[in-house]
């Protein structure tokens, strides 16, 4: 086996080891986050929250599940979306369904 | 068996030397390939972590929220509606929620003001979310000013800051007393922002929702199940920026694969011709090309996934942050819990590695089954 094959083998092993470290880190982090997750769930129950706080720029991306029918037409019909987060976060499925069956 | 392994080693060795002869081109290819995997894996890891976290945390959300809509917009709901809801069989309780958005001109941030029914803060005091504490550099004992509906200034003392771990659900929250809420937004006059309903049997939720909708036709009902489903559909692939990102990634990947599949360079064809002329079998050539594809694509896949993991779970998916933050000042610095969906990673592997490997082998097979003399002459 030549030096370059050994170097490549080592490179492959390092990558696989990193993948292993990643999986181990994920498992440990999940275990460690148990109490924090429970705490968050309790806060959600106590404060009767409905959404995650992913974005604070527009009401319909702050409270995604409470978005309404005129989302993206905030000011008047044909008013275009001008909040960047609105183009990343999709509308809630129940809202789309409310417009009636398609096809 | 031993000779088989030896053969693979020798072919791999030759493949590496062949790749190193075109070092610049192959390193550029590896970098672009890694970037493609990194982008796709980042989206996959972030969405799957948010979905999982939402499903764990929002399972404690209210079972049902009832909102009133007037002219297509949400409007405060009369508390008189509570009686009509409480009359329905199966409803345990129903109460009004008081919450609203407040724009803080001092830092230009939007807050969510909320009156908790349990452990309500004393009048004159507030409890703030960690995002607000960071934006206003506020801590317990500090005072924050709020503009009241009558134009005055209401000074509220910070009684506490919610735990840093709660950022993902409470970053922008200001918990206030009912009297301070009314001072800021005006008297409620028998109205609430919306209503929450608790039921005895969760299986009756949709029946009860139908009854409420029939009794109160100017309302809309959002079930907990729908809240959870909302986060299943978060980061929709049809969304503008993600669609563009995905389109760019797929196009780049198609170009790379097409370049490989559409044919070999003159140099590569000559190399195959020489190998055939010196006695390599077609299977050896295909094996070499398989190794070539595998070395590039598997390395790019592993590198891309590891970098995406670091990006999403150590740097809070900073690449997406500017979009999520948008024009807002207050941006939750949440650390996602690394819930990895193995099936998604497997799908990503088959989506990115297999097409490239196949695209590498096909033209090489075509070149290797033709006459070596013709291949070397470039016919």
Give the helix/strand layout.
The complex is a heterodimer of chains A (103) and B (379).
Chain A: H1 3-32, H2 34-47, H3 59-62, H4 93-98
Chain B: H1 2-21, H2 23-57, E1 64-70, E2 73-75, E3 77-78, H3 81-86, E4 91-104, E5 109-115, E6 125-128, H4 130-136, E7 143-147, E8 153-161, H5 167-170, E9 173-175, H6 178-185, E10 191-192, E11 194-199, H7 205-215, E12 219-223, H8 224-232, H9 240-261, H10 266-277, H11 282-313, H12 321-325, H13 342-368, H14 372-376
Parallel strand pairs in B: 5-9, 6-8
Antiparallel strand pairs in B: 1-2, 1-11, 1-12, 3-10, 4-5, 4-11, 6-9, 7-8
Helix pairs in contact in B: 1-11, 2-9, 2-11, 2-13, 9-13, 11-13
Helix content of chain A: 40-55%
What Rg of chain A, in angstroms, do the CA atoms define?
Answer: 23 Å
Count every beta strand of chain B, where a strand is a DSSP E run of 2 or more residues: 12
Secondary-structure-derived class of chain B: alpha+beta
Strand content of chain B: 15-25%
For the biggest sheet of chain B, the summary is: 10 strands, mixed
Name the helix and strand elements of chain A from N-terminus to C-terminus, one letter apiece: HHHH
Give the uncertain stretches of chain A in residue-range form: 98-103
The pLDDT mean of chain A sits at 82
- Average pLDDT for all residues of chain B: 86
As a percent range, the share of helical residues of chain B equals 40-55%
Oligomer: heterodimer
What's the number of structural domains of chain A?
2
């Amino acid at each position: 086996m030549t030096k370059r094959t050994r170097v490549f083998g080592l490179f492959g092993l390092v990558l696989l080891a990193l993948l292993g470290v990643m999986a181990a880190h994920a498992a440990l982090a999940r275990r460690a986050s148990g109490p924090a997750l429970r705490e968050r769930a309790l806060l959600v129950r106590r404060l009767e929250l409905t959404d995650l706080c992913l974005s604070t720029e527009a009401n319909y991306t702050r409270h995604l599940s409470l978005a309404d029918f005129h989302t993206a037409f905030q000011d008047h019909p044909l008013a275009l979306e001008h909040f960047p987060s609105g183009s990343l976060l999709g509308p809630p499925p129940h809202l789309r369904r409310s417009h009636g069956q398609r096809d | 068996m031993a000779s088989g392994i030896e053969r693979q080693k020798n072919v791999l060795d030759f493949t590496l030397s062949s790749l190193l002869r075109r070092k610049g081109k192959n390193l550029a290819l590896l970098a672009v390939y890694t970037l493609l995997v990194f982008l796709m894996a980042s989206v996959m890891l972030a969405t799957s972590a948010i979905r999982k976290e939402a499903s764990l945390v929002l399972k404690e959300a209210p079972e049902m929220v009832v909102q009133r809509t007037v002219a297509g917009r949400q409007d405060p709901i009369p508390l008189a509606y509570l009686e009509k809801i409480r009359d329905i069989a199966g409803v345990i309780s129903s109460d009004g929620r008081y919450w609203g958005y407040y724009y803080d001109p001092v830092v230009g941030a939007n807050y969510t003001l909320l009156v908790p029914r349990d452990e309500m803060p004393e009048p004159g005091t507030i409890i703030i979310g960690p995002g607000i504490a960071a934006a206003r550099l506020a801590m317990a004992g500090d005072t924050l000013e709020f503009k009241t509906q009558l134009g005055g200034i209401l000074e509220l003392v910070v009684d506490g800051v919610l735990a840093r771990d709660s950022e993902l659900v409470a970053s922008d929250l200001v918990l206030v007393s009912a009297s301070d809420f009314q001072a800021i937004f005006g008297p409620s006059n028998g109205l609430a922002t919306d209503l929450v309903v608790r039921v005895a049997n969760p299986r009756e939720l949709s029946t009860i929702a139908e009854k409420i909708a029939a009794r109160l036709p100017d309302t809309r009902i959002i079930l907990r199940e729908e809240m959870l489903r909302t986060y299943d559909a978060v980061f929709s692939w049809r969304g503008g920026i993600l669609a563009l990102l995905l389109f760019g990634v797929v196009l780049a990947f198609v170009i790379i694969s097409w370049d490989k599949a559409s044919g070999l360079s003159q140099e590569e064809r000559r190399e195959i011709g020489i190998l055939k002329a010196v006695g390599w079998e077609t299977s050896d050539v295909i094996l070499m090309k398989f190794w070539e594809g595998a070395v590039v694509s598997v390395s790019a896949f592993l590198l891309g996934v590891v970098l995406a993991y670091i990006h999403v779970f150590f740097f809070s998916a900073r690449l997406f942050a500017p979009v999520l933050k948008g024009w807002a000042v207050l941006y939750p610095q949440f650390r996602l819990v690394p819930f990895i969906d193995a099936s998604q990673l497997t799908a990503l592997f088959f989506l990115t590695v297999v097409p490239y490997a196949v695209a590498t082998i096909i033209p090489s097979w075509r070149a290797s089954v033709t006459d070596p003399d013709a291949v070397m002459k470039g016919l």
